[in-house]
Amino acid sequence: MGKLVLLRHGESVWNAEGLFTGWVDVDLSATGEAEARKGGELLRDAGIRPDTVHTSLLRRAIRTANIALDAADLHWLPVQRTWRLNERHYGALQGKNKAQTREEYGEEQFMVWRRSYDTPPPPIADDDTYSQVGDARYADLPPELMPRTECLADVVDRMLPYWYDAIVPELSAGRTVLVAAHGNSLRALVKHLDKIGDDAISGLNIPTGIPLVYELNDDFTPRKTGGEYLDPEAAKAAIEAVKNQGKK
Ligand SMILES: O=C(O)[C@H](O)COP(=O)(O)O
């Protein structure tokens, strides 16, 4: 059985500004670029050499993979890109400030929209500045699959077909697979791997730029629940920071 490496993109410009991002295609901040480089160095120093790479269709994940692989002298690896690894679509919250949203709607509603399993934010209007309707990269997506908002359950439903069809066969063949994606598409995958309950998943947060390694049994259950971060101390602090986003 192969090894699975999960890597959330480095800090994005909107992460730094505290805005809900979702499918809006913002770039990495300078800090995020440094995090991506560090992520590649951690892989190199741990002697983990992916055979294949999978990313979303969003710049922050694509560039994180490119920068990390370049740092590990692995820029030549084959890459597959898919909307199914995109960040969760944040609906009408895309572009909104997290702290202001928390202030305006209160802690409970903020957490329901941010971390509940099955309650999506309000849908985004097709003519909204931050809508992706009409974006060329989704031209081949059947209209009924183009989201206007998503809850985490929606992300699980659209991510798992790619996990089974594209990633599982590579792992079964003994390959090491790097998935460079987003906080919530990775939360969806970790929920599946570690069989985390629909309520308990609200407490899981993924840090930016720190590789999370899963050694898997033949039945795809993790040898260690939760996997192992290549820099556990940095991950612990970064997870706390993600959890507290939106707090003054
Ligand atoms: O899309 C976003 O805003 C972030 O990348 C993920 O945000 P969250 O951690 O608030 O879900």
UniProtKB/TrEMBL annotation:
<comment type="function">
    <text>Catalyzes the interconversion of 2-phosphoglycerate and 3-phosphoglycerate.</text>
</comment>
<keyword id="KW-0324">Glycolysis</keyword>
<dbReference type="GO" id="GO:0006094">
    <property type="term" value="P:gluconeogenesis"/>
</dbReference>
<feature type="binding site">
    <location>
        <begin position="21"/>
        <end position="22"/>
    </location>
    <ligand>
        <name>substrate</name>
    </ligand>
</feature>
<feature type="binding site">
    <location>
        <begin position="114"/>
        <end position="115"/>
    </location>
    <ligand>
        <name>substrate</name>
    </ligand>
</feature>
<protein>
    <recommendedName>
        <fullName>2,3-bisphosphoglycerate-dependent phosphoglycerate mutase</fullName>
        <ecNumber>5.4.2.11</ecNumber>
    </recommendedName>
</protein>
<feature type="site" description="Transition state stabilizer">
    <location>
        <position position="182"/>
    </location>
</feature>
<dbReference type="InterPro" id="IPR001345">
    <property type="entry name" value="PG/BPGM_mutase_AS"/>
</dbReference>
<feature type="active site" description="Proton donor/acceptor">
    <location>
        <position position="87"/>
    </location>
</feature>
<dbReference type="InterPro" id="IPR013078">
    <property type="entry name" value="His_Pase_superF_clade-1"/>
</dbReference>
<comment type="pathway">
    <text>Carbohydrate degradation; glycolysis; pyruvate from D-glyceraldehyde 3-phosphate: step 3/5.</text>
</comment>
<feature type="binding site">
    <location>
        <begin position="87"/>
        <end position="90"/>
    </location>
    <ligand>
        <name>substrate</name>
    </ligand>
</feature>
<keyword id="KW-0312">Gluconeogenesis</keyword>
<feature type="binding site">
    <location>
        <position position="98"/>
    </location>
    <ligand>
        <name>substrate</name>
    </ligand>
</feature>
<dbReference type="Pfam" id="PF00300">
    <property type="entry name" value="His_Phos_1"/>
</dbReference>
<dbReference type="InterPro" id="IPR005952">
    <property type="entry name" value="Phosphogly_mut1"/>
</dbReference>
<comment type="similarity">
    <text>Belongs to the phosphoglycerate mutase family. BPG-dependent PGAM subfamily.</text>
</comment>
<feature type="active site" description="Tele-phosphohistidine intermediate">
    <location>
        <position position="9"/>
    </location>
</feature>
<dbReference type="InterPro" id="IPR029033">
    <property type="entry name" value="His_PPase_superfam"/>
</dbReference>
<feature type="binding site">
    <location>
        <position position="60"/>
    </location>
    <ligand>
        <name>substrate</name>
    </ligand>
</feature>
<feature type="binding site">
    <location>
        <begin position="8"/>
        <end position="15"/>
    </location>
    <ligand>
        <name>substrate</name>
    </ligand>
</feature>
<keyword id="KW-0413">Isomerase</keyword>
<feature type="binding site">
    <location>
        <begin position="183"/>
        <end position="184"/>
    </location>
    <ligand>
        <name>substrate</name>
    </ligand>
</feature>
<dbReference type="GO" id="GO:0004619">
    <property type="term" value="F:phosphoglycerate mutase activity"/>
</dbReference>
<dbReference type="GO" id="GO:0006096">
    <property type="term" value="P:glycolytic process"/>
</dbReference>
